[in-house]
Amino acid sequence: MKKLEQLFKKFLLGILLSIKPVLKNTPLRKFNSESSLLFIRLNRIGDALVSTPLLNQVKSKLGCKVYVLADKKNHFIFHNNPSIDKVMIFDKKLKSFLAINDIIRKHNIDAIVDLHDDVSTTVSFLIALASVKYKFGLEKPNHSIYSHTVERLNPSIHHVVDRILKLSELLSFVPDYEKIRVKYYPTEIKLSEAKKILSQNNPENKKIVGINISAGSKARFWGVEKYKKLAALLKDYSINYILFCSPADINLAKKIDDSENIYPTSDNFSIFAAGIMNIDLLVTPDTSAVHLASIKSIPVFALYVRYKTDDMIWSPYNTKFDYVVTEEPTLENISFEEVKTKLLPFLETTLNVKTNT
Predict the structure, then answer these.
(1) Its pTM surpasses 0.70
(2) What are the backbone dihedrals phi and psi of residue 230, each rounded to the nearest 5 degrees, phi first?
(3) What is the full DSSP assignment across 293-334?
(4) pLDDT per residue over 316-355, tens digit each?
(5) For residue 167, what are the contacts with CB-CB under 8 A and spacing of at least 6?
(6) How far is the C-alpha of 214 from the C-alpha of 263, rounded, in Å?
(7) How far is 153 from 212, CA to CA, in rounded Å?
(8) Which long-range contacts (CB under 8 A, 24 or more apart) does 94-98 make?
(9) Contact criterion met (CB below 8 Å) for 136 and 113
């Protein structure tokens, strides 16, 4: 049944892609405080985070109404953001596809903007079905569904944030690049809770290194023994460290270190994010954690998998960082010595610390 549904979707999408919007290449209109824009960003947490710089600039430069259509896996990234007027959740059911025009009518949407850097079949359907004059996106294979497109910068040499910011040309403004930052707003309660947890772990008020062991797939778990060696290595410095992990990886964390050095796990992303945003340096294999650290310009040392792609790694934006990378499908063969050789100089320089010995 799933295969038939996928074939049917491809068939319908082929028809939709063959229909060229009537406004293709017509002059762009000027948007202002009276305008309403709908931005679509589905999929993962990291995808949502790297979209926030453009949304913040749109609100700052145009003062228009900013609406975001997200999904259940990332919608919480956009909540509490003062640059966003409303967040709506798309659940990928047929009625949600049809409801796109209800959203457009209800909020008087003047333009719909695809924030996806690559082609999304789901988003292509939504945009093709949308009854709105202006449909904006990056120049991609599905370009025929948009009324206007802008060059998609080469992903091998341009950061994903810069690629998304390219959409500002269709909105007729120039971003303030010096002010560009990823944004996320945990509640004040979660921020206070995170600070309390970290202070209890750090009675001597030393610099705190966060070690996040979890990522979007098991392929990016570096290994219990290597993380144990890393924890032991950090004990030689006048710093404290704390392990971050998802609830699914709590048993792995307990194999690495004592429970007192493990940040409390929760299905609430806000408490995890608040913790990351209150440390002094982060070690992580996960790109969403990388971008969370960049919000507060927290230095990042990352472990990357760059398998069968020439795309630039998803590094933190405007933030000090260093990394190790493998072109294999997992982190398994990145050695402890390779990480140690690069991490220690980075740690000592950015935190201005030396070993106790």
Answers:
(1) yes
(2) -65, -45
(3) HHHTT--EEEEEE--S--SPP-PPTTS-EEEEEESSSSSTT-
(4) 999 999 999 999 999 999 999 999 999 999 999 999 998 8
(5) 54, 113, 115, 136, 137, 138, 150
(6) 12
(7) 31
(8) 97/125, 97/126, 97/129, 98/129
(9) yes
